[in-house]
Amino acid sequence: MRQINGETLLKGLVDRWRNHKKIVISETRFFFYLDRYYILRKSLVPLEQLNLCSFRDQVYSELKDKITRTVVDMINDERDGKVIDRDLLKDVLDVYVQIGLGMECYEVDFENAFRESTRNYYSNKAQTSILECNGADSPEYMLKAVECLQAELERVSHYLHSSTEPKLMQDLQSELMITPVETHTEEAD
Q: Which residue from 7, 8, 122, 167 could staple onto 175, CB 3.0 to 4.6 Å apart?
């Protein structure tokens, strides 16, 4: 998988994750007695958790940067009007959540990079739109800003984790409304 890029990489990750989960279910059933009594009595890590950590350490850790870049690039492509496989993105982002035994992998490995990319994207978009609309306080600019907010809310509902929404809205308000209006006001003075 190291030589694979783009959507093919994401599909490969999702397929391997699904297969891994099936194996974990079978293994957990097969070793039920061992897991329930011996491992519990000896205070060892349960097999299911051990298997999740194994996938995270051996597959995910090697590819996480490449996967994150691919996901962020696909989201930016969608922002630019290209059609993307939203179901695939949802499946990949679910891997971030499930693999971390909590939200840590999602927040640290994906969300931080996504938010940085979002701020950069909309900072550039705001500058372009301000020039096209004759200022950040024009009704045309405000309509474009609202359209961007709605598009991002739609992304949250389709494939991003719901915990991303408040952070994303804060970033968007800053990049599309607060910073451009402050800059425009300073230039007018």
A: 122
